[in-house]
Design a protein that fits this description.
The chain contains 10 helices and 7 strands. By secondary structure, the chain is of the alpha/beta class. α1 (about 20-30) links the parallel β1 and β2 (about 35-40).
């Protein structure tokens, strides 16, 4: 007697910072393209975000299975909680979007040290930690896709959110270096470089009232679409969103750093009002 055919297992994607903004829209892209999801964020909105994409029994007919992990990746305990949850799935991670990040705005002489150190822990240290966890098994399997959310801010000094811009410069360099190291392994690394995007980043970072906050912003869904398509195409990076972002990234390559810092400062300098 012929055994019944077994449906192939869907690929699995991990997305951090997935409760809102670019992270949620990246998760949506994965779900719409046939991936199951592990979604992580520090806030309790991650539960509703995961449920909104879940296609399991009683949730629609997409077949997408989602798992929500509420964990603060700025802490060692939070990172370990996410790693343990991924291990519990007993499934290989086919794609990962390392997207979680925060900003700290204001003159560096005035920002609380603990805020700047927390930013470095989340934006830099947790990105390295998660990459260290996913890269070896991907290399062993001979396949995998890694997306780092960098930023246009990575291309120039960022006065008035100095640690944020510096953290994104680290992420950009790290992604490019990893991509080279992994070029013959079947594992691709892509850097997503959005400009100002319509998310809660500006409020959380303390950038309200700045020129960049009051300027037009890109749709996070469009930014995520650009990022997902670049990831699946195996591109090294993508400057997502508006044409203005691509012009800014190109200009930053040829502009002296002092001039780039002055230009950037006009966008991020705190409002007197």
């Amino acid at each position: 007697m012929t055994e019944p055919a077994t449906a192939p297992m869907r690929p699995l994607a991990l997305v951090t910072g997935a409760s809102s903004g670019i992270g949620l829209e990246l998760a949506r892209q994965f779900a719409e393209h046939g991936f199951d999801l592990v979604m992580c964020a520090e806030d309790d909105g991650i539960q509703a975000a995961a449920e909104s994409l879940d296609g399991g029994p009683g949730h629609g007919d997409s077949g997408v299975l989602t798992q929500a992990i509420q964990a603060d990746l700025a802490t060692q305990e939070g990172i370990q909680r996410l790693v343990d949850a991924v291990n519990w799935t007993d499934r290989p991670i086919d794609a990962v979007a390392i997207n979680a990040g925060i900003g700290v705005a204001g003159p560096f002489a005035e920002t609380p040290l603990q805020d700047d150190l927390r930013l470095v822990q989340l934006n830099v240290a947790s990105a390295v930690y998660l990459a260290k966890k996913v890269v070896p098994p991907m290399v062993a399997a001979g396949q995998g896709r890694i997306l780092f959310t960098s930023s246009i801010a990575a291309t120039m000094p960022g006065p008035y959110y100095a640690t944020y811009a510096a953290s994104k410069s680290f992420v950009q360099s790290f992604a490019e270096a990893l991509r080279y190291e992994l070029k013959d392994t079947g594992v691709t690394v892509t850097a997503l470089m959005p400009g100002p995007t319509d998310t809660n980043f500006f409020d959380r970072a303390g950038l309200e009232g700045t020129t960049v906050d009051e300027s037009p912003k890109d749709d996070p869904a469009e930014v995520a679409k650009d990022g997902f398509e670049a990831l699946m195409a195996g591109k090294d990076h993508v400057v997502a969103g508006s044409t203005k972002n691509r012009v800014q990234a190109t200009t930053a390559k040829v502009m002296p750093q002092t001039a780039a810092a002055a230009t950037h400062a006009k966008q991020t300098q705190p409002s007197d009002g």
